[in-house]
Give the backbone structure.
Amino acid sequence: MTFHPLDPLNADEFRAASGILTRDKGVGPGWRFASIEMVEPSKAAVKQFEADGTVPDRRARLVVLNRAENATYIAVVSLASDALLEYTHVPDVQANFTVDEWEEADAMLRGNPDVIAALAKRGITDLDLVFMDTWTYGAAVIPEKYKGRRLGWSDTWVKSQPGANPYAGPVNGFHCVIDVNSMELLEIEDSFTVEKPEIMGEYVPHLIPERIREHYKRPPLKPLDIVQPEGTSVEVDGNLIEWQNWSLRVGFNYREGMTLHSISYKDGDEVRSIANRLSFSEMVVPYRDPSVDHFRRTAFDIGEWGLGFMTTSLELGCDCLGEIRYIDAVMHDSKGEPYAIPNAFCIHEEDNAVLWKHVDHDAGAEVRRMRRLVVSFHVTVANYEYLVYWRFYQDGNIECEVRATGIMVVTHIDEGQAHPHGTLVDNRTYAPFHQHFIVARMDLDIDGTENTVVRSETQIVPISDENPHGLALVQANTPIEVEGHDDFDWNTQRAWKIVNENKRNTIGNQVAYKLVPGGAIPSFFAPGSAVLERAQVIGHTVWVTPNDENERWPSGEFVNQSSVDHGLPEWIQAERPVRNTDLVLWYVFGIHHITRQEDWPIMPSDTVSFWMKPVSFFDRNPSIDVEPSPGAHCAPGHDHGDHGDHADHSGHDHHAPSTDGGLTHNH
């Protein structure tokens, strides 16, 4: 593997970074390493390395928590010189929660005599079946008497039997308030009880009642094998991926999880830059139910917890199908000790039906199958799973897709009780409405670093002598001059082009990529909402800012127990120019989850995506040189109606690999 300065921290570097703070500042027992991440080198430093091999200083940034003093510190260390460069106390903030705290809180609560006694009053005595799920707080809902503490609040769930789904057994009206630093139970909120209804909340086959298994029994599937007898066309060297003129690097950190860097496309003899860095910078999941069980339930899954900490290993034939290349990752625990995540990223190519086709009356058919490069990772965030796919196409398109699956939070209710803020999904059991807002941070470099975002929308031309039939449309393109935000407009099909005004293609058009919005949803929050105040980013579809390496988190770095959004709404007050400059485009998309009965007991993947599509970036269809599939009848001179002696009457296409589903062999 060839070293590159964008490579994520390895295990030895995690140990070295935490070791410097232990040695120089006594960070050890009684402290937590909330986060350790690489300080990414600047664009200039990366270019210098690629030009002459000059290696920039390898640095790490750490956020550490003194539990006894409830004090948060930020440190920067040089791994090359084994030195502490910065160490600063940040007052009145709470660092991100750690997986260790989540697990320790569960163990503490299940062993607490007061919790045991309170559950026993409800008839819950087998603590091995109890699961306590700790959530973070927003400042607006923290009880006044506990302000200034590092707080968590818990849901309680009970499995029907060992191995069963805990989320099918909510203990409604029962919540604990915890000081997470001292792991002290501050209060048990035991507000109401509901007689447990008979429901079917299991999804593991052997736990599903036989009558239901028989009802839903379907014929078995024949094997579906994806084979590439000559291997994959993807080249992987360390974290560098190359495929079909595309080149990119995979990064990884505790907060964003997988990041993509240095994305370029080889156009003839020219390697053309498209993006410097792509990632998810925040995920806001507000539950839209003001009831006792749910009014506190707003998660910042990236800022409060971190996708890197929740990244899971992928399995061939389950998560990834076909001829796969994997890249491993390394993360750390709250003691600063590294641990490995094998197969963290899946890299493979997929068939995706027809790329382009035409049947000429005289010459016959020309057909090309579409392949795409897929770079993916999965995260488990308590009850939900998020499956992230970045796809790169032969025609220059980039697609970002997110699939949400897992298990909905549910609440039992009494017979006849209303549930206006959710959907009844089982007997006296409803799932509250909620939303999943994802913020993509895109540092785009379309043929260079100086770009402009242009609002592009379709306008109706009034009927006139020149337009007597009312057919005409025009496309209005408005450059965004000053940083700020914009919103999707269905009536004009508004999109946003990222244009390099300094470069034109061979016929004179400015080169650009267009953000084609998908999953753009309004916030549905009333002005003044405390949730919206701390996540103002979700109030708009697009934000544009100058590129600043210190402006990474759209709702601020410390969103745990926050009350105000210290990110984008504050940055744009400077009214900095963004035309023809190095800029960042922030895109807000997601799922407006009006829960369904069909989402229970486990949710089929709900899919949202957006695209980045070239617009005058290429002189013509860049996939015109894709070759016909070997041996297939999609080359010149072949009529679809005459396959001669080579006809395959099975109806199967043996020449192109399938995409999802079925079993596979590891070749």
User: Anything to note?
Assistant: Residues 108 and 581 are 52 Å apart (CA to CA). The chain is about 10% helix and 40% strand. The chain has a mean pLDDT of 94.
